[in-house]
Amino acid sequence: MRILGIETSCDDTGAAVVEDGRILSNIVAAQDIHVEYGGVVPELASRAHITLLPRVVQQALDTAGLDVDKIDAVAVTLGPGLVGSLLVGIEFAKGLALARGIPWVGVNHVEAHLVSAGLESELTPPYIGMVASGGHTEIYHVPEPGVFHRIGSTRDDAAGEAFDKIGKLMGLEYPAGPDMDRLAREGRDDQVPLPRARLKGDTLDLSMSGLKTAAKLFLEKEPRPIPEPRLRDIAASVEKAIVDVLVERLGQALERYPARALTIAGGCACNTLLRQEATRLAASRNIQARFPSPKLCRDNGAMIAHAGHFALERGQTTPFSATAIANLDSFEPLPA
Fold it and tell me: Cα angle vertex 257, ends 268, 260, to 5°?
């Protein structure tokens, strides 16, 4: 089955063609208009999707060497995300499906991230999955295909948000994650005292707000501009503080739930230290560590098509009455 996947949940415009788990094309257009604002401006994002999406879809079809009449189904992000951005992709998908007389299926963006590593390597349940990005930091237990139990999440800021906001205070451009990673590789991670939030009670939830506040107070005392050697040490210390908390929670999840693999997806899954520490954790438990390649860590249409494929295999389609759900949450939390 050839599925066109469309992703417009935030500020990346993505379209891809996936055939039975094989990526034929995966095109993503980034919206550079948000850089000067230090974050995503929802109205600008939705307007940019309107302009970019038809071109990106056509490029995905051209790269796959297919005409639109060779597409068997359309999968699109239904939520969660920015409602205006979501609507652009959903209405495009509906129109294409209606015109071609093919099924369409709305996909949960987080679920798509959780299965994305399966596009490049074997990812067989049961497994523990983490989605770590600018908008999400959540931990799931996946006991069987299509079943996702959220067992932990951030109570305030997402990990990617912490990277971006602290990076902005350091003078880095948005998004700060790539520069933070680059600087941290040559820095010393014990030069800045930063807290690791450990929440009370029997929980797998996380918190990043205390770290962000501590970093802000520290950086307010630093001379400007911050010298490059000092930036490296700060970046390494911030990165270590964030990764320590994420990996600690993953380790606790593996102690509580049966798993044959561990996967991390989302933008933060590109982070070098997080991959290293998660791989070490998986090895200590004698299980596999599965990470999407960097191109699949960012929001993209291939992961949407892949998740859509599983839904269609289960006989699921979406009625044309469905619309964007900004806070979509199809997962039932389980007690940790």
Answer: 70
Count the alpha carbons within 13 Å of 191 in the hemisphere toward its beta carbon: 15
| Residue 24 token pair | 């034929």
Residue 333 in this model has a pLDDT that exceeds 60: no
Task: Say if strands 137-144 and 127-132 run parallel, antiparallel, or are unpaired.
Answer: antiparallel
Question: CA torsion, points 143, 144, 149, 151, in degrees to nearest 10?
Answer: 30
What is the C-alpha to C-alpha distance for residues 131 and 119, in angstroms, rounded to an integer? 16
- Rounded to whole angstroms, the Cα distance separating 212 from 218 reads 10
Same fold, 2-114+296-313 and 124-291: yes
CATH H-level superfamily of 2-114+296-313:
ATPase, nucleotide binding domain (3.30.420.40)
Q: Does domain 124-291 match CATH 3.30.420.40?
A: yes
Minimum mean pLDDT range among 30-44, 90-104, 287-301, 322-336: 322-336
Structure tokens at 174: 């948005």
Given strand 127-132, what is the order of strands in its sheet? 147-153, 137-144, 127-132, 261-265, 288-290
Do 31 and 8 touch, CB atoms closer than 8 A? no
CB-CB contact of 109 with 323 (8 Å): no
**Rounded to 5 degrees, what are φ and ψ at 149?**
-110, 115
Whether the full predicted model's pTM is greater than 0.70, yes or no, is: yes
In single-letter form, the type of residue at position 147 comes to V
Strand order in the sheet with 2-7: 22-30, 12-19, 2-7, 73-79, 104-108
* Residue-range domain boundaries for the chain: 2-114+296-313, 124-291
Task: Compute the CA torsion angle 173, 174, 177, 178 (nearest 10 deg).
Answer: -60
CA dihedral 171, 175, 176, 182 (to 10 degrees): -120
Q: Which two tokens stand for residue 58?
A: 């056509």
C-alpha 71/C-alpha 129 separation (Å) is: 30
3-state secondary structure of 281: helix
pLDDT digits (tens, 9 = 90+) for 250-285: 999 999 999 999 999 999 999 999 999 999 999 999
3-state SS, residue 51: helix
